């Protein structure tokens, strides 16, 4: 059977008015006769270089704290918005003293009461490898400074992997990866903690899935879950979509790969150092309401103790996941994997009892894949940047002698902005699911280019009253890609954008 010819890459400046306006800085939108340039300058290479440049700018933003070694008084690192967990935990979790994570108990005078490392095993291994690469006995720069630099170099690799994976997941939309590379919140939060490791593994899993490699995707998803807990949530969207398409073998294969990989990483530590291994889970359960969450506003406004916050948050996640599953089964067309993946991770973030500023890294690649529109993405990013500044100014207020910084009311406003920005993006994605003609990815006739075996598969189970027609392939309905025999009239706002 003859394969359809490959489609030309979608140019954002031809479909996105914000991208077209921004391109004026480099000469304006590309015309239809524009040359593709030297073949070496592929979208993936260009985006990787942009990602490195933005990551370097994010490191430069931390230079004030780096010069002081992060230990020149608690308030300075907040007023300069350059705080990072990395140098503090180098000493506070025993890496500077050569202690082995999970196996060696950390002295209370070093850790402040944390007996073992409170991170998942694969992240702990990442931290330990960086400690091996950090030379000891130096004074200028100090080992803590070098440890941050080593981690920054390793995390930069993770950031490039994320950007390149997003570039390749949707084959005919490679320039969507530029949204990831230019995301201001990514540059600002990349070296606060180690979240980019789980993000890189998650994006690699999505890339494998998009190529139909279910077991490899599961292996990578299991490794990502061994680095951070949130990637396991993606099994939920996979279950719903594979159920609707009848692709059980792919789902079970991916799930088996995830379980095998997670056990392979965790079982050795669980057996040999059970108490240290369990610290991440007990700490997550016992942690009180903390910065950045809706629960913190409730606690501060009402003086409520919220002792059952775990129950409340879990209940909301369960109800939300049930709603997302209902959306997946009842939508007029089967949602794209990235859409449901973004919604389920965003739900977890919105209902969690803590929101650290680097958690935005979980959502950035998923948001780009779910809704690759510059306007919506930048609206959300503005809210996240404001929250990034707000939390540090609030901590400066709490830790400075003269209470210079952002008071409690101002910080609560920053939290609300973060919540509203994320909720806005969720609403736009839900609208795309319910009204597929709004989905930028499906405008050229695509079904789910990141869906792997789901792409173009007919429905076998839905909650809609009428039986669904098979999903259109990439060669059908080249303008809008809706099921049926006729093309709809584009909505007014969409026609203006195109």
UniProtKB/TrEMBL annotation:
One matching Pfam family, short form?
Answer: GT87
Name by which UniProt lists this protein: DUF2029 domain-containing protein
User: A single Gene Ontology molecular function, please?
Assistant: hexosyltransferase activity
Q: Say yes or no: keyword Membrane present.
A: yes
**Entry GO CC:** plasma membrane
Report the subcellular localization.
Answer: Cell membrane
In this chain, the stretch annotated as Disordered covers: 479-498
UniProt lists the family membership as follows: Belongs to the glycosyltransferase 87 family.
Q: How does it sit in the membrane?
A: Multi-pass membrane protein
Q: Which UniProt keywords apply?
A: Cell membrane, Membrane, Transferase, Transmembrane, Transmembrane helix
Membrane-crossing residue ranges in chain numbering:
40-60, 146-166, 178-209, 215-243, 250-273, 312-330, 337-357, 377-398, 410-431
């Amino acid at each position: 059977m003859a394969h359809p010819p490959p489609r030309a890459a979608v140019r954002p400046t031809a479909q996105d008015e914000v991208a077209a306006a921004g391109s004026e800085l480099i000469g304006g939108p590309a015309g239809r006769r524009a040359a593709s340039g030297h073949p070496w300058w592929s979208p993936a290479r260009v985006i990787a270089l942009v990602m490195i440049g933005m990551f370097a700018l994010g490191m430069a933003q931390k230079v004030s704290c780096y010069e002081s070694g992060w230990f020149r008084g608690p308030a300075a690192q907040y007023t300069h918005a350059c705080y990072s967990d990395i140098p503090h935990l180098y000493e506070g979790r025993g890496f500077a003293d050569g202690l082995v994570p999970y196996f060696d108990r950390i002295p209370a005078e070093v850790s402040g009461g944390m007996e073992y490392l409170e991170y998942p095993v694969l992240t702990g291994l990442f931290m330990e490898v960086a400690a091996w690469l950090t030379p000891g006995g130096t004074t200028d720069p100090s080992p803590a400074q070098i440890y941050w630099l080593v981690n920054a170099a390793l995390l930069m690799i993770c950031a490039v992997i994320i950007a390149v994976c997003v570039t390749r997941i949707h084959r005919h939309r490679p320039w969507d990866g530029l949204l990831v590379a230019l995301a201001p919140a990514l540059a600002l939060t990349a070296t606060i903690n180690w979240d980019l490791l789980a993000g890189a593994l998650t994006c690699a899993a999505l890339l494998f899935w998009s190529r139909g490699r279910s077991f490899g995707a599961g292996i990578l998803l299991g490794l990502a879950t061994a680095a951070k807990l949130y990637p396991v949530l993606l099994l939920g969207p996979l279950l719903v979509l594979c159920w609707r398409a009848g692709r059980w073998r792919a789902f079970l294969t991916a799930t088996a790969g995830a379980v095998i990989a997670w056990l392979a990483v965790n079982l050795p530590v669980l057996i040999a150092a059970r108490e240290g291994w369990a610290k991440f889970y007990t700490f997550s359960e016992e942690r009180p309401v903390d910065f950045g969450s809706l629960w913190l506003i409730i606690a501060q406004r009402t003086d409520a103790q919220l002792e059952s916050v775990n129950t409340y948050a879990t209940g909301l996640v369960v109800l939300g996941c049930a709603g997302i599953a209902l959306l997946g089964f009842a939508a007029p067309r089967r949602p794209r994997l990235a859409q449901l993946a973004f919604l389920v991770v965003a739900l977890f973030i919105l209902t969690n009892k803590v929101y650290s500023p680097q958690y935005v890294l979980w959502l950035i690649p998923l948001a780009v894949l779910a809704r690759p529109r510059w306007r919506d993405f930048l609206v959300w990013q503005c809210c996240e940047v404001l929250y990034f500044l707000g939390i540090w100014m609030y901590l400066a207020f709490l830790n400075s002698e003269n209470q210079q910084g952002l008071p409690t009311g101002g910080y609560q406003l920053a939290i609300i902005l973060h919540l509203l920005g994320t909720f806005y993006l969720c609403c736009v994605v839900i609208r795309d699911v319910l009204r597929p003609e709004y989905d930028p990815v499906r405008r050229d006739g695509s079904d789910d280019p990141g869906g792997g075996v789901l792409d173009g598969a007919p429905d076998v189970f839905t909650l809609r009253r009428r039986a669904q027609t098979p999903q259109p392939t990439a060669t059908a309905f080249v303008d809008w890609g809706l099921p049926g025999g006729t093309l709809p009239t584009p909505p007014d706002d969409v026609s203006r954008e195109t």
